[in-house]
Each structure stands twice: as structure tokens, then as C-alpha cells.
Specification:
Blueprint (H helix, E strand, L loop, with lengths): L7 H18 L2 H18 L2 H17 L3 H18 L2 H17 L3 H18 L4 H10 L4
Helix pairs in contact: 1-2, 1-3, 2-3, 3-4, 3-5, 4-5, 5-6, 6-7
Length: about 140
């Protein structure tokens, strides 16, 4: 409705939540399509938080679809943007995803270091759920 009404500010805040819902539901086609739209809009407006967040989610979609190389590419770009913008929670989430992607590419040492950095950020911020997931992944045997 926000998009149809051309209420760009509302769309900017609502669209990422819809994309995240698609991702959570496993609807990767819809998530990917919407995230590409968000990513392009954020790049045009130099909205770095949304650029980094949508980049992280695009990496998560690639990871969920088993494309670790694409996930690494997307996540590394998102992390660079998020570090520059100071978006720490998103940065922690992106680092956690990058750790998972690196593990899938066989780089267990780097994956562990990245996951530990993510865990430190997310613990410090008091982020829920994701730190427990990272602790579980760090305790697991290398792939």
C-alpha cells in the first residue's frame, strides 16, 4: 500500500521488514526480488543503513540457496558499508552470516574469527537469538 500510494518514506521502512518475512518464510524468490529493489533504491539515495541491511539480506538469500560464493560477495560489500555507517547490530548480523558462508567455502579458521567478532558485537548490544546461534555454530565441528 505504501508503494502504491508513493509514500517512499513508509516504503523504505516497511519493505525491508517484508523482505525479512519472505526470507524467514523461505520464499527466496520474493525476498530476492524485493531486496534487489530496496538495494537499488538505497544506493540511489545513499541510504547506507538500508544499503548495508539489504546487502546482508541478499547474502542471506544466497546462503539459504547454497550459493556461498555469492553470499560472501554480498556480505563483504554489506559489511564494508555497515562498518562505515556505524550500524552495529546489522554489522553483527552480517558478520555472523559471513562466518557461515566462509565455513561453507571451507575456510574454517576465517569463519571462526568472523563469527567471534559477530558474537562480541551482538553480545555487547544485547541482541537476542543470533548470539545463541553463533555460540552453537562455534561449538560445532568444522565442515
Amino acid at each position: 500500500m505504501a508503494k502504491a500510494a508513493r509514500h517512499e518514506l513508509a516504503w523504505t521502512f516497511l519493505a525491508p521488514r517484508l523482505a525479512d518475512a519472505y526470507l524467514t518464510a523461505g520464499d527466496y524468490v520474493r525476498a530476492h526480488q524485493l531486496l534487489l529493489e530496496i538495494h537499488a533504491a538505497a544506493a540511489r539515495r545513499e541510504a547506507n543503513f538500508f544499503l548495508g541491511a539489504s546487502g546482508r539480506c541478499l547474502g542471506e538469500v544466497a546462503l539459504a540457496q547454497g550459493d556461498a560464493e555469492e553470499a560472501v560477495r554480498r556480505l563483504e560489500a554489506a559489511i564494508e558499508t555497515l562498518r562505515a555507517s556505524g550500524s552495529e547490530n546489522e554489522l553483527g548480523l552480517a558478520l555472523g552470516a559471513l562466518g557461515r558462508a566462509k565455513r561453507l567455502t571451507g575456510n574454517d579458521v576465517e569463519a571462526t574469527a568472523i563469527a567471534q567478532e559477530a558474537l562480541a558485537i551482538l553480545d555487547r548490544l544485547g541482541t537476542l537469538e543470533e548470539p545463541d546461534r553463533l555460540r552453537h555454530e562455534l561449538a560445532a565441528e568444522p565442515v
